[in-house]
């Protein structure tokens, strides 16, 4: 089978198209013919190994010291079940499915074998493979954090870095909850954010949301590049600050009550559950949320896709097609 292999840590050029053995499913696994996957900021971080210093040693030990142990990237996929292990009972050959590879990665290939217990569900009718592949990572992360915040109708929510895969899902899910959403990102993404329901948009390069008197019930910081001390002032006294990309400083602040007053800071990693993906699937099927696709690249052009993701211009999701 064809796969894009990450031969070492480094720039997109370390990705090479190779022929690998077609995987054989274990007793509790299913083998999926991958029709579409994605190239995400997380994939680029793993390829280049650009993680915060406090995560460097444990992640290097996990992913591989000298070169990647899981050398085929790709965290989410959509495709068809081609064969099943003898002990799994959830899926049948021919099922159209989408889901997360979790830390096994491997979706940027023709085939992948995964435990049937992973966050994998059947695709709703009428949804394309390309659209379905964009939902798992962004959707489950956004759903996880919004549930943590217990977002309610009428609340004001600020989403920093709203134009990516997590942000575009967070905007739509927050609007479904009845929140009033202000989305912050670069000017090229603002029209797209308005089109998916944002009430107000801000170009972070031209407008400083911390400089006005506006305050919010919930702030969801996905990119983690701004000033915490300035941003926290835009949060209401009993507001909730969601940290989607924590650094050591964010974790420290969570442990020091005096730095946040009555405000609540949530630093966490999302759980990936089939029931959550099924919830998102139902919202997709009924048109309450939609996939946001910027560009689609063939598998062979994964290098170019990574360059585009790292440019910061990505609006929503970049899809990798195996068709």
From TrEMBL:
**Which InterPro entries does this UniProt record tie to the protein?**
ADH-like_N, ER, GroES-like_sf, Lipid_raft_assoc_Zn_ADH, NAD(P)-bd_dom_sf
Q: Which organism is it from?
A: Planococcus dechangensis
Q: What Pfam families is this protein classified in?
A: ADH_N, ADH_zinc_N_2
Q: Which domain of life is it from?
A: Bacteria
> What range(s) does the Enoyl reductase (ER) domain occupy?
10-320
Q: What is this protein called?
A: NAD(P)-dependent alcohol dehydrogenase
């Amino acid at each position: 089978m064809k796969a894009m292999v990450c031969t070492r840590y480094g720039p997109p050029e370390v990705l090479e198209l190779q022929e690998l053995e077609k995987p054989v499913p274990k007793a509790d696994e299913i083998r999926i013919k991958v029709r579409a996957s994605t190239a995400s900021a997380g994939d680029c971080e793993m390829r280049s190994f650009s993680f915060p210093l406090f995560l460097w040693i444990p992640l290097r030990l996990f992913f591989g010291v000298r070169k990647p142990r899981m050398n085929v990237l790709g965290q989410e996929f959509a495709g068809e079940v081609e064969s099943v292990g003898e002990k799994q009972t959830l899926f049948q050959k021919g099922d159209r499915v989408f889901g997360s590879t979790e830390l096994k990665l491997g979706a940027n290939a023709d085939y992948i074998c995964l435990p049937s217990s992973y966050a994998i569900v059947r695709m709703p009718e009428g949804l394309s493979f390309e659209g379905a592949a964009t939902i798992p990572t962004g959707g489950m992360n956004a759903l996880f954090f919004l549930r943590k915040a217990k977002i309610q109708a009428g609340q004001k929510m600020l989403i920093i870095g709203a134009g990516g895969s997590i942000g575009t899902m967070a905007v739509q899910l927050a609007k479904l909850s009845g929140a009033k959403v202000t989305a912050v990102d670069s000017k090229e993404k603002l029209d797209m954010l308005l089109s998916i329901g944002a009430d107000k948009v801000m170009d972070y390069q031209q407008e400083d949301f911390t400089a006005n008197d506006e305050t919010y019930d919930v702030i969801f910081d996905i990119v983690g590049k701004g000033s915490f001390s300035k941003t926290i002032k835009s949060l209401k006294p009993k507001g909730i600050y969601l940290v989607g990309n924590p650094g050591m400083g964010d974790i420290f602040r969570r442990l020091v009550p005096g730095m946040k007053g009555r405000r609540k800071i949530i630093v966490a990693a999302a759980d990936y559950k089939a029931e959550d993906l099924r919830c998102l699937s139902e919202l997709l099927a009924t048109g309450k949320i939609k996939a946001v696709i910027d560009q689609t690249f063939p598998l062979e052009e994964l290098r170019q896709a990574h360059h585009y993701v790292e440019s910061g211009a990505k609006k929503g999701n970049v899809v990798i097609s195996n068709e």
